[in-house]
Amino acid sequence: MLWIKILQNPTLQKLRYCRHIIGATVTVHFSSTGQTGLKILRDSLLSWHYTDGPVKEGFALIQKSNTALFKRLKFFLNGDTLYTFFAFQNDEGLKHVQAQKYFTEIHFSQQYPTTIFVNKAAALLKALASEDSTVATGARDVLNTVEFTRNDLPLLYSALPKKYKSYQTEFRSVNEVISGIITGLNDSSVVDVVRAQYNIINDSTGDVQMLMLGLLASQKTATSYKLLKQLFLDHSPKSGNSYSVINALLDSLNLAKDLFPEVTALYGDTVTGGGIAKLAIELLDSSVVSTEKVLQNENGLINLAQKQYEEIKNDEEAYPVYNVNVIALLGRFNTKQSNDMLYTFLSLPDKWVKQNAILALLRNNNTVPGKHIREFAADREWRTSFYESLQSINKTAVFPKAFYSQLKFAESYLYNSLMEYYELDAKSMQFVKEKTAEINGKQKRFYVFKIILNDDAEKTPRFAICGAFDMNKDIAEIKEEEQDVFLNYEEVFSLSKLDEVFKKYIDEK
């Protein structure tokens, strides 16, 4: 049997051409330096020959594993196409004159020049800015897959501040991808380039400036952080996502600490203030910087918090960037003004925001109106996680006793597990019976429910079981590793089958 495979990849950009040959576990590498390699992941390589000349071609003979079959290959480049010819043969077939003649004499009547070893970085980066959307999209699609080197940095530096078309389907902008490539190459020349290019003006200046600050933060040197601090303070970006900058700073807290106290001047900045607040919290929690250096410009932080409050109030879907950290830092100030701002957040319907404010206030031993605590305790979705949050700050005493019971916690564990692991929402959940069983040598308590799922048009009742609780009913919570929720899809709920279903559930644990 003879099988021919023709592969063409006109967008191949870099110095190496690599192809996994279909039907064999072989990888062939051609390079512009003439070096080649053939790697066998399985099977046995019996012979291998490569010729590097006007026609780059190779021959290989492979013994297939656990069979009497051999695989003979011939592959060569013509133009930018790698042609692979191969045949599966037994020992007799290998000696056949016609087969040997085919592999040795086959050739092209015309040889075309190969361009795949020519660096196409300049052409690719130029195509990204093309007015032709087809060309630009094609370049964008391969940008993430191209292997750039430090020799390409001048081209990448030039491409970084340019304005590119954006597409709704793209996860990261072209500028972000280019910034990521530059970061990965990790070259100290970034510092001088950012110093020279930071004030370039175009439609995406703010976004690009933020990316440039991220490049400096990623360098992790005293020189890069000195420039970063200067630009942060004198020319803070007016737009952009600060995640890349802040994440890089969080990786180098010993360098980032030197941004304080001066950088606290940015607490009120709607673009960078939230990220600076997160950095401040991390520095405090790591004991890398003194509270005196971080707890400055309280008015700026309160102004930012007020703007975030208004944003959430006017749009229930809004969640301002780093709001959780802004709230946490307000709590660290622990003044009447900062606590008053925290109380203001309690009026919002957003439970994430409200919970963060409650916890910040309780840490400072402030009184939180009982209705807000009860709101979380009564909500089966939030009940157990809210209790755990209170537990983390030693404030469980404020949790309403009416909702601290194994049954109430079972409802919450069950509801959240159905959502998280089954992606199901319980329309109704009715407690039916307590059961006990021995688990790993210890008696444990379980709660059996009859539930109806929201997406069940027929409203079929099902068995659901939640455990394994301590036999002491005064202990309502379950350790995460011991939580177990079971939903029985096989049986329609029937009280007469309850013991049978429970026994099967325990037996299969």
**Global outline:** flat
* Ends apart, CA distance between termini: 53 Å
Low-pLDDT windows of residues: 1-40
Q: Got a strand count?
A: 12
Per DSSP, the total helix count is 21
The largest beta-sheet arranges its strands as 1-8-7-6-5
Please tell me how large the radius of gyration is.
32 Å
Structural class: alpha+beta
Mean pLDDT: 87
Instruction: Please outline the major beta sheet.
Output: 5 strands, antiparallel
Helix content: 40-55%
What is the percentage of strand-forming residues?
Answer: 15-25%
Keywords:
about 500 residues; alpha+beta; five-stranded antiparallel β-sheet; 21 helices; about 20% strand
Task: Kindly summarize this structure in a few lines.
This protein has 509 residues and is of the alpha+beta class.
Commentary on this structure:
The protein is α+β, with helices and mostly antiparallel strands. Among the domains are: 2-105, no CATH class; 120-259, no CATH class; 405-507. 42% of the residues lie in helices and 19% in strands. The chain contains 21 helices and 12 strands. It has helices spanning 91-94, 97-105, 121-128, 133-143, 153-159, 174-185, 190-197, 205-219, 222-234, 243-250, 253-256, 273-285, 291-294, 298-314, 323-333, 336-345, 351-363, 370-378, 383-392, 406-421, 498-507; strands at 2-8, 16-20, 26-31, 36-40, 44-51, 57-63, 70-78, 81-89, 426-439, 442-453, 462-469, 484-492. The chain has a 5-stranded antiparallel β-sheet. Strands 9-10-11-12 form a 4-stranded antiparallel β-sheet, sandwiched between helices. Strand 2 (16-20) and strand 3 form a beta hairpin. The radius of gyration is 32 Å and the shape is flat. The model is unreliable at 1-40 (pLDDT under 50).
